[in-house]
Amino acid sequence: MANRSKSVLPAALVERLARLKPNKGTDSGQELKEVLDELAQLPPESIVRASNEIATSARLGRWLSRNAPMRVVPRGRFSFSLPLSWKVFAFDRIKDDPPSERDLLKINPDYAWLFLFHPNGHIREAALRHINTPPRSPFFLSALAWRLNDWVGQVRQAARHCIERIGAGLSPEVAAETGLYLLSRRLIWGRWRDEAQTLSLILAREDVIAAIADRLRTRTNGPMAACLRNALQHPGIDRHLPALAARAIQPSVRAIAYQCLISGKAPWPIGYEWIWVDRVYGLRRRIPKLETRELQRDHAAATYVADGLRDKSAFVRKIVADAMIVARSDLPDERHLVALIANDPNPAVRSRADFMLRHPPSQGAVP
């Protein structure tokens, strides 16, 4: 059983999973429903660790135990005229096994959500083929995405077909809540290839992007800046950038939004690449590799610079000032903008104004 001190599953859920028994009775269906309801409450980012803990706690793959009780049944052809010493051979001893996982999927399709965590790839694939309704929570959508990254190719393909089958009915709230976690998994989970595109098509939906943008604007904690950086690959996020720049709670989100609006470009990570630090000593460093696209803006860069230089966060003002230096050629009235930060209380921001005063635009100097 999983280590309780480090478990992502509540202790009560671990015990409930351990008591779950495979049978054909109505009580089994109710027990399964209660287990799935509790699993649905788990956060989507717990899927990797929870996957192993669920399989271990529920003893999936060991329901057909060698220690199952035995039954003695008569053979089909039995002759009472046989000698007594022979009659023992006229009976068969068979195990009273519970129904197999495939039988359970036919009896109650809800078992498919539990068998997504089964250690046997054939059962995971069968479970994915039995899912015909959208997941009820972000955790189960995260479970389907985890199967897109399965180590078995046939399971990955079954997961892709499953998401294509149910994706249209997926709630934007469920997709957005899961998307905050899954946007960054694209570069971290290494087994999937084209399967990840199936998930991207859902996250790129207009209603899902709107729900993601709302979370980026209102969340007070979590890596929302990284989520925004990954969401920039979807053009649908462009129309939400002004609101994020003006009203996002986290300064890092506002800073990235202003960077994009001022530069007119949306960069997002697509992997990593190595750069040399010192070829003589063989020292190199891995840095993110970015893809960039043009974005549509409602106003000129100078408008966003002026708004950003009035931001209450010194961090945001510094980032905006850096973006202002890069975009100097697009600013018709630079003196007015420099005056906004010449007396800024933060020395890092004032240093940007000092640089621009010492290096007029005609010199084309960039730090």
What structural keywords apply?
mainly alpha; 367 residues
Walk across the major sheet and give the strand order.
1-2
- Spatial gap, N to C terminus: 57 Å
Content of β-strand: 5-15%
Form type: elongated
The residue-averaged pLDDT reads: 85
Secondary structure category: mainly alpha
Question: How many helix segments?
Answer: 18
Describe the structure.
β3 (265-278) and β4 (283-294) form a beta hairpin. The longest helix is centred in the first third of the chain and has 14 residues, at 26-39. The chain starts with 10 loop residues before the first helix and ends in a 9-residue tail after the last helix. A two-stranded antiparallel ribbon has the order 1-2. The mean pLDDT is 85. The chain is mainly alpha-helical and 367 residues long. It has 18 helices and 4 strands. α6 (121-130) packs parallel to α8 (153-166) and α13 crosses α14. The chain has helices at residues 11-19, 26-39, 47-57, 101-107, 111-115, 121-130, 138-148, 153-166, 172-182, 195-203, 206-218, 224-231, 241-247, 251-263, 301-308, 314-326, 334-341, 347-358, and strands at 70-74, 91-95, 265-278, 283-294. Helices cover 50% and strands 10% of the residues.
Question: How would you summarize this macromolecular structure in one to three sentences?
Answer:
The chain is mainly alpha-helical.
